[in-house]
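Why should sequence recovery work at all? Because a backbone constrains its sequence more than one might expect. Tight turns favour small or flexible residues, buried strands favour hydrophobic ones, and helices have their own preferences. The token representation captures these environments compactly. In the example below, the structure is given first.
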């Protein structure tokens, strides 16, 4: 068998796609959230004429521009891999996913590209109303882009509205059923909310850093931390509810994935336990050292206290996903989500006591949790995509049948090149972002013209025409 470092071409292609998508996902998630945050800041400034909002707009628009640019560059690699490593999948599923990707370009791309330059460079050159409209359109464009991409991804999980061609191609039959497939509304709500929540914790972490540095009297620092904590307090509990509903939808259409997420190797006859922790042994078909709560799993899964559940012991081994990966990534996502709810409730308590800006333990916790939303997004993506295995189009097209007829050496070499390049280029970009975040918003924050230096250094100029792909 053709291998590279002991791995065949299929596994290498999966690792390469997983690495590049996980890396890419971070930046569009931030830009989706920051675009809406910038629109809110701009609107608040126009409403109140409070300079703190404008300082924050000028502060975060530079960070947005850099994240946008890195999202564009990392997103290009997705198209490259569809053509090289997954050409069979592209050929068979292309009649469905190709037009959806084109709709993303025709709607979101042109909307973002048309108004991005005005948002970044237009203040002082166009009226405040037009600048506000442009900022709002960029925010709407990022959400629309995510909508189309998530429609594609959801269709791969819950395919609908197609017929099978003679050569095994998926041919469109009903575009409304394709776009609004059964898992799409839940996945869209869960992913967009996750992006907004991740951005809130990033902004809150930056605010907490400056508060810990003794910059409590800086109006911009106080405003960003307060807004972030309001977002955490309101949206984190909402995200728990949305995630639960998404889980019930997944249980309806992909029960094997949920069994792996919950660690149910054995059939439960009289009440479904909630397995909190354990060590999955997929070969033996059992959970080692499990810590569980009896019966409570039934109501969580929409069943009764005494309900039964068929476990993975009723599923052919060839249909099981890698349980250990799905089991632990799901717990990382849920655990971080509960911690975010805790921070939100803590901030309400501190706000009620008048100590939102003086509770240093809250600030330390918020700083520690600043990357939690992004980590939870990656953990959720791993749960979703690894849990879909062994299929690319669930129940219809298996992953081994989707890979290109390409040698392991070629895939392995490009994988190493991606890893080295990503950590060099994007590592420098992230370092620059941290430097920008380490400086507080100042009363003398440079105007929009002065802000063009960092924006131009990210590769965005008024003449450029970038494209972002938020949720590939």
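From this structural description, the recovered sequence reads:
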């Amino acid at each position: 068998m053709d291998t590279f470092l002991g791995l065949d071409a299929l596994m290498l292609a999966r690792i390469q796609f997983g690495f590049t998508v996980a890396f890419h996902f971070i930046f569009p998630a931030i830009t989706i959230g920051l675009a809406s945050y910038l629109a809110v800041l701009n609107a608040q400034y126009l409403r109140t004429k409070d300079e703190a909002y404008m300082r924050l707009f000028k502060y975060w628009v530079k960070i947005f521009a850099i994240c946008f640019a890195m999202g564009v560059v990392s997103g290009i690699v997705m198209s490259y891999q569809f053509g090289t490593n997954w050409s069979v999948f592209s050929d068979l599923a292309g009649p469905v996913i190709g037009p959806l990707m084109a709709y993303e370009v025709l709607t979101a791309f042109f909307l973002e590209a048309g108004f991005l330059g005005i948002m970044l460079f237009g203040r002082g050159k166009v009226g405040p109303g037009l600048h506000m409209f442009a900022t709002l359109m960029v925010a709407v464009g990022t959400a629309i882009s995510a909508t189309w991409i998530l429609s594609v991804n959801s269709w791969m999980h819950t395919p609908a509205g197609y017929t099978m061609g003679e050569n095994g191609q998926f041919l469109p039959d009903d575009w409304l059923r394709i776009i609004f497939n059964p898992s799409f509304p839940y996945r869209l709500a869960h992913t967009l909310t996750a992006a907004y929540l991740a951005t809130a914790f990033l902004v809150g972490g930056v605010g907490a850093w400056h508060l810990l540095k003794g910059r409590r009297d800086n109006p911009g620092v106080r405003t960003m931390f307060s807004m972030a904590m309001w977002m955490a307090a309101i949206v984190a509990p909402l995200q728990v509810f949305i995630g639960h509903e998404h889980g019930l939808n997944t249980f309806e259409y992909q029960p094997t994935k949920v069994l792996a997420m919950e660690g149910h190797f054995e059939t439960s006859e009289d009440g479904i336990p909630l397995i909190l922790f354990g060590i999955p042994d997929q070969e033996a078909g059992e959970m080692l050292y499990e810590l569980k709560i009896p019966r409570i799993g039934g109501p969580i899964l929409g069943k009764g206290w005494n309900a039964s559940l068929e476990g993975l012991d009723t599923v052919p081994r060839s249909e099981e996903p890698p349980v250990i990966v799905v089991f632990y990534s799901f717990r990382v996502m849920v655990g971080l989500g509960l911690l975010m709810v805790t921070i939100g409730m803590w901030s309400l308590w501190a706000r009620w006591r008048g100590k939102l800006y003086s509770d240093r333990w809250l600030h330390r916790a918020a700083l520690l949790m600043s990357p939690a939303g992004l980590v939870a997004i990656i953990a959720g993506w791993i749960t979703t995509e690894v849990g879909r295995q062994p299929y690319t189009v669930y129940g219809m097209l298996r992953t081994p049948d989707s890979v290109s007829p390409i040698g392991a050496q070629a895939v392995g070499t490009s994988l190493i090149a991606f890893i080295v390049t990503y950590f060099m280029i994007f590592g420098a970009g992230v370092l620059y972002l941290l430097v920008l975040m380490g400086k507080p918003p100042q009363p003398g924050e440079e105007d929009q013209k002065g802000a063009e230096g960092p924006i131009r250094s990210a590769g965005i100029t008024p003449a450029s025409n970038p494209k972002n792909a938020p949720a590939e």
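A few observations help interpret the result. DSSP finds 14 helices and eight strands in the chain.
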